[in-house]
Amino acid sequence: MISHLRTMWLVFVHLFHRKVTIQYPEQRVPLPPRWRGRIVLTKDPDGGERCVGCYLCAAACPVDCIALQATENEEGRRYPEFFRINFSRCIFCGYCEEACPTYAIQLIPDFEMAEYKRQDLVYEKEDLLIDSQGKYPGYNFYNVAGLDAGVKEKGKGGNEEEPVDIKSLIP
Amino acid sequence: MQHVWIVLGVLFVFLNIAAGLIWVERRLLALWQDRLGPNRAGPLGLFIVLADTLKLFFKEDWIPPFADKWVFILAPTVVVASVLMGLAIIPFAPGIVVADLNVGLMFFLAMSSLGVYSIVLGGWASNNKYSLLGALRGASQMIAYEVFMGLSLMGVVMLSRSFNLTEIVAAQEKIWYVFLQPVGFIIFFIAGLAETHRLPFDIPEAESELIAGFHAEYSGMKFGMFFIGEYLGISLISAMTVTLFFGGWLGPAFLPPVVWFFLKTFLFIGLFILLRASLPRPRYDQLMAYGWKLLLPLVLANLLITGAVALWLKS
């Protein structure tokens, strides 16, 4: 009997406790910067697409929600012809981001992606590409790659030596 | 003509209270669980009542093909009707009473017992094993708790020498009966909880064991009737508690009697909800043992002592 009354009193006192409810549209949950939300494709500092169409994200994706087709421009730079993410399948696991060798695909703290039609959850490349470098500002893959794809000449990149003339014996 | 207005007024006020309790209960439960509860629709979320009612009206009103159709339809009306009948004898203020019966208390007990037909018939007509179990429990709970619900009120009757509720309230002019009959009050309130089968005594419903017990097969407004009946039952028991033990409309003169009455009633409605928020449901056999082995002897002893004191004071 006493314990019942005590229980009731303790529950009653909760009337004056701080409420845990976050009133969503007005108040927002503070999301950490590494929150895994909407997937974006980022760009180089000079505005080129980072994605090189290596298919590693599509291979890493456990739910197979990423589809892309790689192609090449006349300078030899690879880029995706189309890049499609089906967000009605996506589980926001972040494996694609881990797999990406060029920091192109990134997950950002945004989860407000509700749509009325399921088809609208399929994002094409123009929906995914953002005009930003994302979490790795200043990084340009073709700057550090050994390849000349119109960004820099061979041997002119960072941490890169001039190519060796393999036909010559002079040191 | 005045009678008609009183009847309509009581109906209007109590049906609105019963509907409004949807909001009150959800808000209070939420506050006691450190949440906010429904606060979006309309001011303070009050329109949730409207939204809920509309939703109930638009839900599919399904009668299972295996059910006993007419009894199934009839069952939810019984609880609402009987509780509304019970409200007829409550004096809200001097002169504001639908039926000033000289056996008012008896009428109340009779009407609140009739409510169990709703559970039994609903559970039986549903033709579903969980519903039947719920009905079974409802019936045995009602029998167990009805006995000492009546007995717990006899102390009040002894003191006031009347079954008429207006006279019982008038007899509390000097001192409320809760101070003279504390045991009677506590037992009446517990029995009232069981009578309305509210948590923690909601064993006919017991959503964790019997899914929803007797109203498992009900949907739409038929389910809504059970719901309204439950809330009306809460209001009725609260109003009766106030009338019998807390001096009804009596109170300091700065507020009109009706306001005092409803103020006290809402306090008890809040207590009902607090009980739901805090106490877990006892097991079925525990409830029965509690009723027959503890409360019944207690109420009989209370009756004996009250009678003895009353006789002693008289002589």
The percent of residues in helical segments of chain B reads 55-70%
List the helices and strands of chain B in order. Answer: HHHHHHHHHHH
Low-confidence stretches of chain B: none
Main sheet: strands, sense, barrel of chain A = 3 strands, antiparallel
Distance between the termini of chain A: 96 Å
Helix tally of chain B equals 11
The assigned structural class of chain A equals alpha+beta
- Under CATH, the topology of the domain at 39-136 in chain A can be stated as Alpha-Beta Plaits
Quaternary assembly:
heterodimer
**Rg for CA atoms of chain A:** 25 Å
Tell me which CATH architecture of the domain at 39-136 in chain A applies here.
2-Layer Sandwich
As laid out across the biggest beta sheet of chain A, the strand order is 2-3-5
Task: Spell out the key features of this protein.
heterodimer, A: three-stranded antiparallel sheet, 5 helices, 18% helix, elongated, B: mainly alpha, 69% helix, 4Fe4S_Fe-S-bd (chain A)
Task: Describe it.
The complex is a heterodimer of chains A (171) and B (315). By secondary structure, chain A is an alpha+beta fold. Chain A is 18% helix and 14% strand. Chain A has a 3-stranded antiparallel beta sheet with strand order 2-3-5. Chain A has a two-stranded antiparallel ribbon with strand order 1-4. Chain A starts with a helix and ends in a 27-residue tail after the last helix. With 315 residues, chain B is an all-alpha fold. In chain B, helix 9 (220-245) packs across helix 10 (257-278). At the A-B interface, helix 1 of A face helix 10 of B. Chain A: [4Fe-4S] cluster 2 binds at residues 61, 90, 93, 96. Chain A: Its EC number is 7.1.1.-.
